[in-house]
Amino acid sequence: MQHRIIVLGAGYTGATAAGRLAKRLHRDDVTITLVNAEPDFVERVRMHQVAVGQDLKPRPYREMFAGTGVELKEALVTSIDVDRHTVSVTEVNGSGVPETGTEELEYDTLIYALGSAWNSQGVPGTEEHAHQIASRPGALRLRSRLARLSAGDSVVVVGGGLTGIESATEIAEARPDLDVALASRGELGDWLSEKGRRHLRKVFDRLGITAHEHTSVAEVAADHVTAADGTSIPAAVTLWTTGFAVHPIAAASGLEVTDTGQIVVDEAMRSVSHPDVYAIGDAALAMGAGGKPLRMSCASGVPTSWQAADTVAARLTGGKLPDAPLRYFNQCISLGRKEGLIQYVTADDRAVRAALTGRMAALYKELVCKGAAWGVANPTFGMPVRRRRATVAGARDQAPASTSA
């Protein structure tokens, strides 16, 4: 009996895990099903580019996984039953719209990679009036709205993290006729090195972006946002980028999750409550260097997909379990198409003095983005492809997780 592996979600982490497993395991011994609601890979780290009208290269999954043995199922995940080892899905049409009827898929090993969506933080008016770019549909809606703005109209980006900074600079560069502002709870770029903060302010000044620092937005209206101190900031368009929220399916399934809904995993990305379930990317609470939780990002997600895929392959084949540490090297920030900022960091993601800025940083970030997308289709580049025979076959591996051989 073949061991049934189901991967939920085909973003950076899920697609990478599925491809890596396909190159590690023999096709006669396993089936690998990749469930995703969209037919094409979405470069989520480029959604701010899509929002200003830039078109990205199409990357159909059926082409990416042709000949690999990975079965792509275009469907929306509706629920998970961890006791019965089943996933309920609703198939979607070519436009991503759910069809009628639900299908149940059985698994022996489940890899949960459903990622995250935007987080309104429960702020009044956000759901009704703010835009988001945590998804391609959201980026396209913002694109349409920005295209209808006239010279002098105001755009407020709420959130001073990486997504907010990249969005504000991208919009200001693409539409210099707009009045672009960013509202940040803290100081602009306060986590960066002195060199990084200095360069960020220089770019904001050059692009004419107004930084509302130490400003929490308490309400969003159709034409303005209101700060916690009562200040009103004009906003023909509000873009909300204050973090991400994970899908509620995990919490509803019975898996052990955190207060934020992230699945609690061990160092092998294995659920601490259900050993036949692995969680990767934004959906998992994984620990990195120094015992600090990994932040939601592509930089965190891809290494967790390697860890999970290699652990699954090792357990099925009797191979050596992975023990590579999860750590950071830098934060790559695009500041429009002509400027960038590469902030070098410690293993646990704290900024050091060194930073790369300017045009070279922009090229660096572009290479990182291209490399991440290419890596989805080539998950074992630079490594020998060895499809090993499984020794566990259809049985579920219930042994305690470990990262020692």
Automatic annotation (TrEMBL):
Its cofactor is FAD. One of its GO terms (biological process) is aerobic electron transport chain. Keywords: FAD, Flavoprotein, Oxidoreductase. One of its GO terms (molecular function) is NAD(P)H dehydrogenase (quinone) activity. The keyword Flavoprotein applies. The keyword Nucleotide-binding does not apply. This is Oxidoreductase. It comes from Streptomyces triticagri. The lineage of its organism: Bacteria, Bacillati, Actinomycetota, Actinomycetes, Kitasatosporales.
